[in-house]
Batch of 3 targets.
Target 1
Amino acid sequence: MAGASAAFSARAASPCAPPSLLPNRIHPRPHCKLWVSPSPTWQEARGHLRCQEVPDSPGASSAAAAKPEGLRKAKLPARARRDKPQPHSFTHRLLVAALKGHSGSVSCLDFSSSGKYLASCADDRTVRLWSTRDFTAREHRCLRANVELDHAELVRFSPDCRAFIVWLANGETIRVYKMTKKDDGNFTFTATSEDFPKKHKAPVINIGIAETGKFIMTASSDTTILIWNLKGEVLASINTNQMNNAYAAVSPCGRFVASCGFTPDVKVWEVCFGKSGDFREVTRAFELKGHTAGIHYFSFSNDSRRMATVSKDGTWKFWDTDVEYKKQQDPYLLLTGKCEVTEPCHIALSPDAHVAAISCGTSIIVYNTRRGEEEERFVGVHGQYITDLAFDTSSRYLVSCGDRAIRVFHNTAGYRAVVEEMETMLKKTANKATRERLEQQITSARKALAAIYGRKH
């Protein structure tokens, strides 16, 4: 996105308290009472109160007659607010840290391509940046970017880590923030002077930036995926023809966009550019076929050569997508595993493709991808449904969010998978240098496991 920095003129982002949503005066009708639903609708949550007719009673009639009309006052409840998630207690021997700083529900996580930072956004009108180096520290400091007059539902880093984009909940559009590093190592955050234009007609479910920095993707819950350039101009519109989109994403290599939904397949397109960097077309690449019901979620490995999917049919699948699709070669199904599926459901494939983590409701189950066996189970991780799940770029940590906290776990299943894979390779090689390298990797993984399980909690 560095090449597009000139297109982003800046304005300072500053916190702003929300304006009062209640009118200055409310004149209740006679024999009406103000009523707030125990489960308020969005209108009520924004301060629009409902009136409910109640039958007259002798007491009410006499009270009405005793006081003149102008002297009776309605006792109003406090302005309706979004319920804040309650603190949730969770402990586990593999829990590295609980990152606490948000005052609202955290909805999205994203690691920078450098692996140094984790971005999170919540309905408290802030985006926070956490240093991954501090995950194992006692204190977890973060940098805060304020979202003016709105809050972010989704956040994504630019490839060069000099900017990030957010999807605005109320504005229903993309806003770009530039990150400027100060002498003390901290950042200042500056929002662009103009947000992207509104184009979607349905709620947006995900956004992404290509690692190449050539395009931005937005996907909505109907069947629409839009491809944008960095200036906020639409390059292409994709109709997925999947009845509805459940999820969509840009591949880590930056070449592909993919979607899943009501139909039992994942569709993948290539976004094509010319040698000079000019956009050409979006063309169908390949499909993942094999599930018997709609697909909730999918995930890529870091090199985009592997994918994992989880479906309503109660299975998750592991795929080899390193194929010559231009020669009509289809992806290979490597593994099918059974799993518990309750909505909302997410799947995250580790960058090295050794393990897959599936979240259902408030719990997480981790599987190895060699045999599909369950390796770890974390129950009741959050006080609310898990909203995002991701591995860090090194595959050392698994991170989840769902209430006000972000929880970080050791990826012990990944270390065990490395040991198993390296031992298998060690038996097949006679080259001395290769054997030494494999033995070093095995020793390193075993030391990491010993340190994790030897840690006192």
Note: The CA atoms of residues 397 and 411 lie 5 Å apart.
Target 2
Amino acid sequence: MPFLTAFLFLGGSVSASAQTTVDLALVLAVDVSPSMEFDEQEMQRHGFIEAFRSTEVHNAVRKGAIGRIAVMYVEWADASLQEIVVPWTVIEHPADGFKFAASLAGHSMRRGRHTSISSAIDFGVRKLRESPVHASRQVIDISGDGVNNQGRMVTKARDEAIAQDITINGLPIMLKRPDPDGSGLESLDLYFRDCVIGGPGAFLIPVRKRSHFIEAIREKIVREVAGLPPFQSLTQPARNERSQCFHDPCSEEGSFC
């Protein structure tokens, strides 16, 4: 992508070759597959906008060892759709957070086909490796309302990311009743816990009510920025049984549903 070799936003523009040092490089990877209803997409987007406007996130950034982070916002759906909505942006001051939120608010939303969490993870790994910053921690933040149903096994993508010292956190969106085809929405928190998240300090925060979007997203980003352990009450899956990752509909490398 052109911006990766051109500019990194930091109040004004600085050369990507400057290797800005940050506490955290964070890829926000947001589901826009058909299972996400339009109002859910709007609430999800609004939650991220409000998070980067919030005093809580600004304070978390300020209290870091370096006092700045780099964030990229990506929307994803099927194996071929990963769109960078807001490119790598360094956030150091509250004004930077407001600028990031304004950029996000000014971008139109789109929809894709299928749900390829594995491709979203792979894309996030590539963008972190191409990032023009030097980060103490690297995190991919996956939000979505369904299981991987296209691309390679999600556990393979997850494990390869972890092997590169990348943490994957999750925001499973659980607003609907389970589908009769067994897509696993009822236990999506378990699926994310067992099959998606991983790495040092990995956690998930389920969203079970529309009114929880802003609070959950803000809390998740604060904890990612600060490197804090999650609240047990926010991250405990609804049940204790184990999810089965191998029921992934696309179990063969490179297969498509």
Note: The first strand starts at residue 7 and ends at 10.
Target 3
Amino acid sequence: LIKRDDAQARDAEADDMLDTPPPRGTARTRAAATKRAPTGAAAKAGKRTATPARKADARWRTRALALDGARDAPYPPGFKPQLTDHRATAPDGDGWLHEIKWDGYRLLAEVNDGVVALRSRGGLNWTDDFPEVVQAIAALPVRDVRLDGELVVLDAQGRSDFTALQKVIDGTAKQPLRYVVFDMPGIAGVDISRSALLQRKALLKELIGPGPGTLAYSDHVLDHGPAVFAASGEAGFEGIISKRVDAPYVNARSPAWIKIKHESTDEFLIVGYTDPKGARSGFGSLLMATPDKGGLRYVGRVGTGFDDALLGALTRQLKPLAVADAGVDLPAHVPFKARSVHWVKPVLVAEVAFRGWAKEGLLRQASFKRLREDKSAGDLGAAGQATEKAKGMNKTTRKAKADAQAAGDAPDGVSISHPERVVFAKTKITKGEVADYYRQMARWVLPEVAARPLSVLRCPDGVDKPCFFQKHHGTGLGEAVRAIPLEQKSGREDYLYIEDVAGLLQLVQMNTLELHPWGATVADPEHPDRLVFDLDPGDGVSWAQVKAAARDVRDRLLDTGLQSFVRLSGGKGVHVVVPLQPKADWAQAKDFCEAFAQAMAEHAPDRYVATMSKAKRTGVIFIDWLRNARGATSVSSWSLRARPGAGVAVPLRWEELGRITAADAFPMAKALQRAQRLKQDPWDGIDAVKQVLPGA
């Protein structure tokens, strides 16, 4: 791919990214198709190794504990894989490594006290299906390890061949399997998931060792991302995976791992098929659809990419799924009649390659790649790609997605325990009613919080008992609550964020009442796209004075060339929110906000103060500019407030502010009524504002 010393392109094969060449001519017989059973306990599902405990475990333990960030505790069994974001271009610059994107099945392996267990990405037990992989892992010189990799079959040129892999699995071909391992979050009772990826891979490479075999180490190239990507295409590979060299291993989708592919592919539901023509058997083409606004939207036909064996196999899978009624509406311009289609239940997920979208919203030059047996229909609504969503999804599209999810397009599937528990004693509002509020308000809430690092206020015993803020990701929050590793003074730490209704409700299930997002996205956490001035009135300040102060801030911002929007805090004050193009960094943003607040305080010291000192705030309004530092947050629009009256932070149009009677004028029920009556977002156009900080 790329020489490590001079970054010049050279001829390459997949084995150049492996530590050892693939074995040739290994006999293999499969008598049955792959089983699909749920994973049980490791001791029941796994295969015990024949190798006795070795002193080598102590050596690996010592090596692991020497890594930065290592923890003297086993990495949890049953772990979930780290998932990639998708981008069109490879990252350029230092701090990235680049691996071949292998086209196979994701395979997680664990050894617990000598018991080997294999699991699919979705948690299916594959231990009995690949005995040669179990045997190879059992031969490793350690009795406790967690491995993440891809199960592949390599062609004669050393490229992974998914079709060949499927034939090996279903027993119609004999070729050697390879388990290409690219990460190791735990070894010898030590959790190294927080250690830098480069350190984990160095230890992994040493563990697997040289020599041909079923296990292979997935090597990498440092830096030169665009050149690596270009060379991978010339060598005939599907693409690359780019990873931050210092990234921890997280059990979620992360922008620290990026997938870059040479052709556009996506996953769609098969909703029907047409009859074959001429000598073709099985079917003519597959009809594809995608979840959209509570139902399914037709996206086109796929008629290429099949051989005779695949046509037969797919036909056998489709016929038992036959239904009488169409699952989608066909556009008027399609060149066939709906009555000529054999409709099926939309449960099979297909990966399709295509050359973009036609103006009618249909796939161009679509070709079948494979059936994604490891995915279900629900995955199409739940899959998240945080980086691209945050960059490419504006407020309108996020709201449309939330509408679809709330309507059942991607059912949240979140059960709320103890829904009868009273959370707001004064108003008798229960946990179940809080969940219903956020479920109904998702179309308004998600555009403000999705794909942003979050702090949440959790109140396990209601608002009258102690509540606590949480910003770090942790176990038990739910799989739709995602993690993003961010650099802090203490090192890299996993912050939480959400992408969809399921994530929102899983936070509510964990007794979250308030949502406090960063003023930046997970795609670009170092450059704010929102500033907030929180006007906090001291004792003796009237509500009329607070409203006048908000207009004063608005006008002074306009003098600097910045447009702003207004929000009731749901407590005592008002927020003035400034949208930005993410150009300035946090230091520049903080300096601007501090100088702005100080100037207002100096101009009108009888009205404003720019310091947190309680002693100086009586009779004046604190212009809180401190919300605009890296890691600081402010409450989101439409978030509940953990106060006795169950107030809500409600966005307004500036012309509405005059008739509002208090900062907490909208308790939960009234806020819901307001949202249901709104014909237009009060902050309509906020994402279209193109402005930058003066001097940025």
Note: The first helix runs from residue 42 to 45.
